[in-house]
UniProtKB/TrEMBL annotation:
Its main location: other. Keywords: Cell adhesion, Cell junction, Cell projection. One of its GO terms (cellular component) is focal adhesion. One of its GO terms (biological process) is cell-matrix adhesion. This is PH domain-containing protein. Pfam families: FERM_M, Kindlin_2_N. Residues 164-186 are annotated as: Disordered. Belongs to the kindlin family. The keyword Chloroplast does not apply. It is found in: Cell junction; Cell projection. Residues 377-473 form the PH domain. One of its GO terms (molecular function) is integrin binding.
Amino acid sequence: MLSSSDFASASWELIVRVDHPNEEEQKEVTLRVSGDLHVGGVMLKLVEQINVAQDWSDFALWWEQKHCWLLKTHWTLDKCGVQADAKLLFTPQHKMLRLRLPNAKTVRLRVSFSAVVFKAVSDICKILNIRRSEELSLLKPSGDYFKKKKKKDKSNREPIIEDILNLEGSPTTSGPPVSPGLYSKTMTPTYDPISGTPASSTMTWFSDSPLTEQNCSILAFSQPPQSPEALADMYQPRSLVDKARLNAGWLDSSRSLMEQGIQEDEQLLLRFKYYTFFDLNPKYDAVRINQLYEQARWAILLEEIDCTEEEMLIFAALQYHISKLSLSADTQDFANESEVDEVEAALSNLEVTLEGGKADNTLEDITDIPKLADHLKLFRPKKLILKAFKQYWFIFKDTSIAYFKNKELEQGEPIEKLNLRGCEVVPDVNVAGRKFGIKLLIPVADGMNEVYLRCDHENQYAQWMAACILASKGKTMADSSYQPEVLNILSFLRMKNRNSTSQAASNNETMEMNPECFVSPRCAKKHKSKQLAARILEAHQNVAQMPLVEAKLRFIQAWQSLPEFGLTYYLVRFKGSKKDDILGVSYNRLIRIDAATGIPITTWRFTNMKQWNVNWEIRQVAIEFDQNVSIAFTCLSADCKIVHEYIGGYIFLSTRSKDQNETLDEDLFHKLTGGQE
């Protein structure tokens, strides 16, 4: 038996500060504990000593010096390493956080500061009714990010507080009764697929969620366009190095908000981080589609991604159309018209799937490898030579292009055979000028070979462009995505095509429009307002009949077809190099880019990657590819963990399939992105 003096020597005093929700100041509580007392026992003693009747279930211990939560309540203090000098804080795990959404709306909601960010984002997306939370993450912007916005708010003489959508009662712990992350083929549609309005019968699902029908509309509908002055205020011409610095703020998905120094009620950005948007479905994704559209819209307006003037006008026309439909009070409600029996729809889907669409010539399709053969013009840029295109006979088969002097020689040896697997494909198009070009950057041992092809008309361009895009991913024209890709390119070209036969826009419409709201400030400076309005309205004729959700999806598709789409930039120093380069990370490849000129130097595909790891001591990422190619680099504009997580995250997202029961393998995500730290 121990005497009381022996017991006293084995125990010691532990000071714990307590966060009282209703009081300004934290109170200190002194407990007498021993090393074999478990964390749960410490919390029990604390609550008994505080002696305040309230719900303490959300409270946990935070260890300030070690910057970690003590969440394993069965561990003893000795096992945790807690001694008398430990500074512990007894605080709620869920705290308020302000999130700026892609549509520039700020929501204030209760978020877990103890769960890893991957889980916290999943809970946030459940509240906001956004499926596929793995595509989004939280970004901590640089210090001056919100200051600019405040200046803008003052000029509008609007208090900032009014712009905040308060979802304080949000049940992040339990989530809504039916999680929007779930989805089955026979699930009742949550939104009308044409107008994007919430289907009122299903809004009862969100009865426990703060996302009422009104709040849902705020998130699912486009905001009115910003004034040209506000746009000019926010616009900053950015070099690739500037863009790289913007990406330094992504939070680590494997650690909690508290561990990353995020304070209660701090403002963060919720953004789509990974540019692979899986299974976008208007029936369930009105909020997701709208937020995606808004992120694309701001990227275009603030020139975070480059596009031609012709493309800028299409984006402007679509924005004008969407804002017009969003503002019109009499947005038609198609919900009643389009009610189709779900079982009927599922059966007809199954029928089409089983029949495999057209049954004609099935055997012929299997044995026949598709190929393209036609006259195209080719040009290889060389110094001091003007652009001179020369016509050849081209044959596109599998993932390669071969060209011959003329059609008669196609059975012999080609002049050259270009293997397009892993190449960069860039459109070089001006529809008004009848120019349909394809720029190919083909990887070779010492960099990239540049080749330009020129087509005669839209149809030829769409077929060859689609074939090049698929070949760059290692797919042939036999792939089921080839025809949809051709149609997608053609529909984008038709939107660019100015409709000369259409009626000229009325003067009233030109007067009403504020064209500078729909284009980047740099583009607005080049044209007179009236001239710009006329050109936008001219482009609008091609999209004027589109329903609201289709117009947003078309905008997203057009954004996805831009050459720079989905590239996230980081400033790095490659091993053995004496100068800094830009590393572009995309959903399927890494690109080394010259920081001064912006010209791609080399491309590496994820499909050729054998392994990658991080040397945490020297903060270096090392990657091995097929054919004994290996690269290593240190990251200068951000922590190497951020770049490592991007690569692992994209590989994780490529494992998703519609057959999965919509449950994400969170362990696999952390395994691929954690880097065995």
